[in-house]
Write a structure and sequence with these properties.
It is a single chain. By secondary structure, this protein is α/β, with parallel strands linked by helices. It is built from four helices and eight strands; from the N terminus they run βαββββαβαβαβ. Helix 3 packs parallel to helix 4. The longest helix is centred in the last third of the chain and has 14 residues. The chain binds pyrazine-2-carboxylic acid and zinc ion. The site of zinc ion (ZN) has 7 residues, from loops. The site of zinc ion has 7 residues, from loops.
Length: 209
């Protein structure tokens, strides 16, 4: 049974990558990505502490298909740290595509964590980059601030939300994902696989909040 969360001082809402490039019309558009914006704003109003993440790649990033001769977006390549899905160029530092959706209330956010800024390593997770060992520093930040329970919303369910929620569990936080406040890319069954992996790791799924 999903337990009702009443956010307190040990709770933080983590809003993952609600950026133009993941919304309709963007370079890596997630279906209905923009539909979550009012839902995220409403949920954020109930939390005393809100943090945002921002996918933030330099031009020519290794996760871009355009950086690999003869490769197309959504193919997989082997990089030195393992398999990496290739993406269209997206969330390039300082571009409009990397900006937060105009409707997202960001005024109360206490931290904006940027990730994916190392040219050779992608970072789906807000905690560890895709080599699975380079930390972003977020776990230490959240621990120092005394947070114990993290609630995740944002884009995309099966990539950055999933990886962040799984790493939150590994780092010892309680983790909840709010389904109606996320949307997925869903490549080859990745959405169903994401929910299975999250459930197995003790991430709580709630539909609404
Ligand atoms: C994401 C693919 C590439 C995400 C970011 O935010 O889920 N997915 N970069
Ligand atoms: Zn990215």
């Amino acid at each position: 049974m999903a337990q009702k969360i009443v956010p307190g001082e040990r709770d933080a809402l983590v809003v993952i990558d609600v950026q133009n490039d993941f919304c309709p019309g963007g370079a890596l558009a997630v279906g209905e990505g923009d539909r979550i914006v009012p839902i995220v704003n409403r949920i954020a109003g109930r939390f005393a502490h809100v943090i945002l993440t921002q996918d933030w790649h330099p031009p020519g990033h290794r996760s871009f298909a355009s950086a690999h001769a003869g490769r197309q977006p959504f193919e997989t390549v082997d990089l030195d740290y393992g398999a990496q899905t290739l993406w269209p160029d997206h969330c390039v530092q300082g571009t409009d595509g990397a900006a937060f959706h105009i409707g997202l209330d960001i005024g109360r956010a206490e931290l904006i964590l940027r990730k994916g800024f190392r040219a050779g390593i992608d970072s789906y997770s807000a905690f560890y980059e895709n080599d699975r060992k380079t930390p972003t520093g977020l776990a230490g930040y959240l621990r120092e601030r005394g947070f114990e329970r993290l609630t995740f919303v944002g884009l995309a369910t099966d990539y950055c939300v999933q990886y962040s929620a799984l790493d939150a569990r590994r780092a010892g936080f309680a983790a909840t994902v709010v389904a109606e406040a996320c949307r997925a890319i869903d490549l080859g069954g990745s959405l169903a696989a994401a929910w299975s992996a999250m459930t197995a790791a003790g991430v709580e799924r709630v539909v609404t909040f």
